[in-house]
Design a protein that fits this description.
single chain, alpha+beta, five-stranded antiparallel beta sheet, 416 residues, 6 helices, 28% strand, globular, 2 domains, 20 strands, Jelly Rolls
Length: 416
Amino acid sequence: MPSQNPLATSAQHMVEDRALALLRRPEMERIRSIVTLLWNNATAWPSRDQRDRFAPMIDEYMFHHAMRAANGDANHPQATRFMAPPHRWFDRDVPGSRWAGDSPDFIYRTIPIAHGGRYEIHGLQSCKLAPTVNYSLMDNNSAAPVTQAILDSLDMHFAGDGSFVITVDDTPAEGRKNHIQTKPGADFIMVRDAFGDWLNQSANALSVTRLNPDAGPKSDEDMAGHLAKIAVDGVYYSFYITHSGNGTGPNELRQPMSAGAFGGMPTQWGSKGNLALDEDQALIVRSNAAGAAFRNLVLTDAFHISIDYWRRTSSLNMDQMVADEDGDFTFVVSQRDPGIHNWLDNCGVHRTQFGQRWQAFARGAENPEPWITARLVKFADLERELPKGVKRIDAIGRHEQITAREAGYRRRFEDK
């Protein structure tokens, strides 16, 4: 199945088919009903204005965990993508698998790992300006994930042709730059390729081999059992993440902090908040770069699922945003186009969740800490409330901005 897209692999096709088959098993009807009940009991009234998004969220939640279970055999691992919106490729429709605050600028992949196993991950950079990539070794506690180890591409060694090999086993690195040491309870590696130029950057090509397999392929029954466990257990963590911005009042943003304390990337800083904007309101957000090579701002719905980012500016990354004249950044969150470049379009969703990430910090430098501010104003008062030096945009520029987003997004699902 030849393709220039490093994500369009036979392994990806196989795991997607396996995940779809798992969801068709009769016992999954009961698991889905339990998951639906748990989510509904906790969110029916708070999310009453977004009930049309509830069933699609459950669809994506179940396929998310089906993909993890279908690629959950640590003896026969693959590197496969998930956390994507619904899409069509290889002449079939693939459900979405977004979950707990997905990033439009990440390509998420999983690689199953077992403590005691020895693995080699072979990779090749697939574009001129390679993305920064984070490899996080996660334990097997779905209800409270823990990052056991982390490897950042900024600290790795690459051959002249962009190729690399990552070794994974239970021994210390002892000077090996491209090494991840496992611990008891190791379950999978979460891979996040983070890029800003959707039109020219692409994910690394990855393949993985276990050097000491000690069992045959996992049975369908075992995969189904794995799916049942992580889908039910995972409700609690994903519910927490979905509501983790509730520590501040509406339209207030939490000051940046490391994501490691609650199962995210320890080297990533983030801010969150719950927004509630009427049509006549706007939120002016200002933040700094803080020496981070990767940054983005994302709006998600009541279930922490990204909103139409392929055709609306409901997210912005460091390549898509522009700085003010003073070098910091101003954004406007609103339903109506404010005529500035850094518009976060809430797509008519009154209540959204806001998140900003800073990661891939410059090595060997004194980086300032990330900061962020937010101020609620009337939309009609924006002109006098905006700071000086904010970059404007006209209708032609906005059309070009959206056209580029759509084209860049389509590249992720090219299969020929």
